Amino acid sequence: MSDAISVTLKKREVTGKQVKQLRHQGLVPAVIHDHGKESIIVSGDYVEMVKMYRQAGKHHPVQINAEGIKYTALIKKVDIDPHKNTMTHVVFNAVKANQKVEAEIPLHVKYDEGNDSSPAERNGLIVLHNLDTVEVMAFPKDLPDSLEFDGEKLVEVGDHLTVADLIVPNGVEVKTDPSQQIASVFEPSALAAANDAAAGEAEAGDEENVDSEHESSAEEDTQKDEIRPGGKKEFEDKEQGHNPEKQ
């Protein structure tokens, strides 16, 4: 794990739709859930919050100073405005140094020195990456910044690697199904044919279903995050885009 990441937050009284005023002031509303205690409603400087998220992701502990009270926390959820691509809300889960936590760890492929691709790709084949992250459990100090897998093992069509092939350091338990594929090798022509076939099966009206599945519920979700006692709920798997004008 890399150096400590810290952020300074201030307690806030503004909630609900009024938080858009904070965003106009260059602040990001946030909440800290602390092991079933009352949630701590806070806000932070936009530039600092974005920098913190880029460094920490959802896997690196963050040292929070909230007006003299210090917390160690993981980022559980970040709301992003899909139109402006700006951060609109952050949810933290406070963690304890002596208790294991679950976190979402990104995957990186490694190659032999001097190579920047797998043997399959160097021979004109295509490697499809099926997973970007996996769920792990570890003490906060043992959470890795990433987990690696050996891209040199991807040589021929049909070769694949699974979660079980990840290089996992001591003290880290991978919770994702070990049989789940993380990368596999295809012939370019076969992959193109599969894509064409999938497109050919698409039906008119599918785009309406997609739109309805991605409608923003920022205000409702943010309120739920801020009023419930934290620390008990499982980490959410995906970041969801939200429209700050609805808050």
Verbal overview:
- This protein has two domains: 5-95 and 221-232, Ribosomal Protein L25, Chain P (Beta Barrel), CATH 2.40.240; 101-186, RNA Polymerase Alpha Subunit, Chain A, domain 2.
- It is built from six helices and 13 strands.
- It has helices at residues 19-24, 46-56, 119-122, 188-200, 206-213, 218-227, and strands at residues 5-11, 27-33, 40-45, 62-66, 69-81, 86-94, 101-110, 126-129, 133-138, 147-150, 160-162, 173-174, 181-186.
- The strands form three sheets. The protein has a six-stranded mixed beta barrel with strand order 1-3-2-6-5-4. The protein has a four-stranded mixed sheet with strand order 10-7-9-12, with no helix packed on it. Strands 8-13-11 form a three-stranded antiparallel sheet.
- Strand 2 (27-33) and strand 3 (40-45) form a beta hairpin.
- The chain is elongated and about 60 Å long.
- It starts with a strand and ends in a 20-residue tail after the last helix.
Q: Which blocks of ≥5 consecutive residues have pLDDT under 50?
A: 202-217, 230-247
Shape: elongated
The number of helical elements comes to 6
What is the spatial order of strands in the main beta sheet? 1-3-2-6-5-4
**CATH hierarchy, class of the largest domain:** Mainly Beta
Helix/strand class: alpha+beta
| Span of the ends, CA to CA | 36 Å
Portion of residues in beta strands equals 25-35%
Mean pLDDT: 83
Structural descriptors:
single chain, alpha+beta, RNA Polymerase Alpha Subunit, Chain A, domain 2, 6-stranded mixed barrel, 4-stranded mixed beta sheet
